[in-house]
Write a structure and sequence with these properties.
The complex is a heterodimer of chains A (115) and B (117). Chain A is mainly beta and 115 residues long. Chain A is built from no helices and twelve strands. Chain A is globular. The mean pLDDT of chain A is 93. Chain B is globular, with a radius of gyration of 13 Å. Helices cover 0% and strands 51% of the residues of chain B. Chain B is built from no helices and eleven strands. The mean pLDDT of chain B is 90. Classes of the chains: A mainly beta (115), B mainly beta (117).
């Protein structure tokens, strides 16, 4: 079974600054996918970014980027130029390849962006 | 694209009532949908996987007779909480898969807050 751990229950950052959210996972699989989802106060889960394990290049989506360290089983999310709208719960998630597309979520990190 | 609608967004009802929650994929066909439960300030817990035209697959510890799932069409899955009690109060979220490719993310609905008095 896979486990996903987010060691930071809560974080805060000043508007326009950069923040990094941590995520580690444990798996014996070699082929898998990793995701970061955002859940704002409106409660809808929104996909922020995804990474295929076979790709060495870190994924980026505008102000969001990841630091994927496969050997260390680490998948951190960096948010640059933080905006007030980034305030949300962030969940790291793991998905095995060709295994029904089921997600295993971490416990979440509550991020507060302060003006 | 890939919009998932969940209805109702909030339900408040008396103990013993059965409550039905709908999950619809609005602009795509979803052969697979997932149902999650989320407690306050907690992560999402997968309850079951719903496949169109077949029985749902429940996670360990989830009562099949308590949480009835029906995936009658490629765009609709329903979760019925039967004879709901206060301990069933929670936030329920569905998600849908556009296709079964290995790298496809789940698309989530807005969630339903269920409160049992």
């Amino acid at each position: 079974a896979q486990t996903v751990t987010q060691s930071q229950p809560e974080m805060s950052v000043q508007e326009a600054e950069t923040v990094t959210l941590s995520c580690t996972y444990d798996t014996s699989e070699s082929n898998y996918y990793l995701f970061w989802y955002k859940q704002p106060p409106s409660r809808q889960m929104i996909l922020v970014i995804r990474q295929e394990a076979y790709k060495q290049q870190n994924a980026t989506e505008n102000r969001f980027s990841v630091n994927f360290q496969k050997a260390a089983k680490s998948f951190s999310l960096k948010i640059s130029d933080s905006q007030l709208g980034d305030t949300a719960m962030y969940f790291c998630a793991f998905m095995k390849h060709n295994a029904g597309n089921m997600l295993t979520f971490g416990g979440g990190t509550r991020l507060m962006v302060k003006p | 694209g890939a919009v998932v609608s969940q209805h109702p967004s909030r339900v408040i009802c008396k103990s013993g009532t059965s409550v039905k929650i709908e999950c619809r994929s609005l602009d795509f066909q979803a052969t697979t949908m997932f149902w999650y439960r989320q407690f306050p300030k907690k992560s999402l817990m997968l309850m079951a996987t719903s496949n169109e035209g077949s029985k749902a697959t429940y996670e360990q510890g989830v009562e099949k007779d308590k949480f009835l799932i029906n995936h009658a069409s490629l765009t609709l899955s329903t979760l019925t909480v039967t004879s709901a009690h206060p301990e069933d109060s929670s936030f329920y979220i569905c998600s849908a898969l556009r296709d079964m490719g290995g790298n496809q993310p789940q698309h989530f609905g807005d969630g339903t807050r269920l409160s049992i008095l």
